[in-house]
């Protein structure tokens, strides 16, 4: 198993972001190949396919039962959907307020009044494909 510590090219030169990106890309490609081999093996397994068919039937029965129960509790499910939307909107508002507060250089923290537990924001950086550049500046 490969050591997961960040390696450097030389003792004095830290690893560059591009190098790490390229390494992650290579490992993801290798992982995709291994998953593909596993998926192909499952696709050719008769016992596995039989279990999938049984699972499909059971899921259909489960969905029918859930739909019947949901019909009996229609108003509760409508209220639940409204609550989900409100929670999502308030979560986005909390994020916006936390970033604004952080940008002002202030400490960002909230406290659960029932448990006296404090919470701090957690930020994540992710990368996505960039837009095509039409020209260089």
User: Quick one: biggest sheet?
Assistant: 2 strands, antiparallel
Percent helix, as a range, is 55-70%
Indicate the low-confidence ranges by residue numbers. Answer: 1-5
Main β-sheet, spatial strand arrangement: 1-2
> In angstroms, what separates the terminal alpha carbons?
44 Å
Supply the helix-strand structural class. mainly alpha
- Structurally, how many domains make up the residues? 2
Write the layout of secondary structure elements.
Elements: H1 17-43, H2 46-72, H3 74-103, E1 110-111, E2 118-119
Antiparallel strand pairs: 1-2
Explain how this protein is built.
This protein has 137 residues and is mainly alpha-helical. Helix content is 61%, strand content 3%. It contains 3 helices and 2 strands, in the order αααββ. Strands 1-2 form a two-stranded antiparallel sheet. Strand 1 (110-111) and strand 2 (118-119) form a beta hairpin. The longest helix has 30 residues, at 74-103.
Features:
two-stranded antiparallel ribbon, disordered N terminus, 61% helix, 137 residues, flat
What is this structure, in a nutshell?
The protein has 137 residues and is mainly alpha-helical. The chain folds into two domains: 17-72; 74-123. It has helices spanning 17-43, 46-72, 74-103; strands at residues 110-111, 118-119.
């Amino acid at each position: 198993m490969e050591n997961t510590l960040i390696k450097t090219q030389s003792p004095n030169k830290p690893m560059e972001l591009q190098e790490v990106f390229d390494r992650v890309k290579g490992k993801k490609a290798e992982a995709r190949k291994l998953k593909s081999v596993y998926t192909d093996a499952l696709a050719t397994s008769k016992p596995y396919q039989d279990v999938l068919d049984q699972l499909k039937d059971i899921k259909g029965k489960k969905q029918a039962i859930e739909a019947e129960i949901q019909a009996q509790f229609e108003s509760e499910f409508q209220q639940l959907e409204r609550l989900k939307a409100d929670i999502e909107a308030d979560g986005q508002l909390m994020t916006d307020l936390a970033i604004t507060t952080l940008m002002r250089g202030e400490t960002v923290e909230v406290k659960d009044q029932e448990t006296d537990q404090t919470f701090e924001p957690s930020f994540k950086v992710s990368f996505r494909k960039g837009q095509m550049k039409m020209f260089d500046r």
